[in-house]
Amino acid sequence: MDSKTHLLSRTEEILSQLVSFQSVTGHTGEQIINWVRKYLSEYNLQVHTIPFPPLHSSEGGSSMYPANIFTTIGPYTDGGVCFSGHLDVVPVRSENWTRPPFELSKSSDGSRYYGRGTSDMKGFAALLLAMVPEWINQNRSSPIHLAFTYDEESGCRGAPYLTRTLGKSLPAPATAIIGEPTNAVPILGHKGGLACRTEVTGVPAHSSNPNHGVNAIYIATDIVNYLRSLQGSLATGTLQDQRFNPSHSTISVGTIEGGSARNIIPQNCNIVWELRSIPEENQNAIIEKLDSYVQNHLLTQYRSDFPTVDIRTTVTAEYPPLKPESDSAALRQISELGCKTPEECVTFGTEAGHYQAAGISSAVWGPGDIQQAHINNEYIERDQLVYYLSFLQRV
Description:
Elements: H1 3-20, H2 30-41, E1 47-51, E2 67-73, E3 81-86, E4 105-106, E5 112-114, H3 118-136, E6 144-149, H4 159-163, E7 175-178, E8 187-190, E9 192-201, E10 205-206, H5 216-236, E11 250-258, E12 264-265, E13 268-277, H6 283-302, E14 310-319, H7 329-336, E15 344-346, H8 352-357, E16 361-364, E17 379-381, H9 382-392
Parallel strand pairs: 3-6, 3-7, 7-16, 8-15
Antiparallel strand pairs: 1-2, 2-6, 4-5, 5-17, 9-13, 9-14, 10-12, 11-13
């Protein structure tokens, strides 16, 4: 068995194990984190665990917070490259799958590996873990750092707790490669994002006397319409970046939830929405516009007669953009590994912006197709793993 065949076989075994863990974002991920930590420790690597508070404070049931993992192969020093990937996955509705989502399976011809996270991004993590003994045997003079983060799918919650330690309690890599599925096309830039929740508190009343209350759903409707108007302004405004498609920042309302019964004026309504911004956009300015509309237009309509009416917007998650740097050290490193595919910009977000904000040259570059992320019967092509493995063997 040649080296690449052996590594691919090892990758498949590890991927099968990783997929079996139901590491859905928002839960601690204790099992998969412990498994990866134990795997690395078996190679006598020093494994650092960087915990952070859980997404839901009422989660309970486990003494362990979600955590990030960091280890170094070679000299424990600044410099070198950091390969980073997240271990959490998005939730699954198993009735919509024709295959077990948390069990690795293959297509009949063996060309595809199915299972939640195979593409996003346990396939990449399995490749890194399979390469660990190969990199150790190189007796490297330059370090390879491996970072495995958590709660990325809820808005890159874990990564900031890791990146703020780099160059302090942990070595600072010279470059970071975040292995999100890009079909091994280097990504030099992506949009930033805010995940927001706007909570509207009205005044309940019997529906036969609507003037005795304040309908929270009506207020929420006004807010949604205002967000739509902001979206229109962004689309037609002068601030455009043609490297992205669409070339402007975008606002999207994802869910609305409110009311308790047909004949009760609803007291509460919650809106979950997001902003995805081009690097030049001032995200805070958009939040300030919404706040101004709420304070100066909506609340003034009601508070004189109904002082308990309230509207609060909370940023529940945030990730910075990856600002395009066409001649960055990270992109040069990818090219030196033999990947000559022209780099691109994308609209989806990753943890790369957090590494860049920490002063580390960063790029997004990984196996698999982003179109397979978050869908039913998620899969990764075997050829993608083989192709990307050829680059890792040159590191």
